[in-house]
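User: Design a sequence. Structure:
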């Protein structure tokens, strides 16, 4: 195998007074190594998109992508986590 596996976290605001953020991470389950990527922030109806990648090795490996999403509006904080796993 040659190349890389990627994980993307995206959070989109629904109203103009919302501040959103997204942070993606990717874990090579076989090696136990996790790469945390830069948190991205957006205001209003824009999207915060964080992208992460990990190089593929010579053998088949199992990866899990995890994204943390947050949004604030009128002093209230909303949190969500999404994940996906695959064998490469």
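Assistant: Done.
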């Amino acid at each position: 195998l040659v190349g890389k596996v990627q994980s993307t976290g995206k959070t989109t605001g629904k109203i103009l007074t919302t501040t959103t953020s997204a942070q993606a991470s990717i874990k090579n389950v076989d090696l136990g190594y996790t790469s945390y990527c830069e948190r991205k922030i957006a205001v209003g109806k824009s999207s915060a998109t964080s992208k992460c990648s990990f190089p593929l090795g010579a053998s088949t490996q199992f990866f899990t992508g995890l994204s943390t999403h947050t949004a604030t509006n009128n002093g209230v904080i909303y949190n969500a986590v999404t994940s996906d796993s695959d064998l490469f």
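DSSP finds no helices and seven strands in the chain. Residues 20 and 44 are 8 Å apart (CA to CA).
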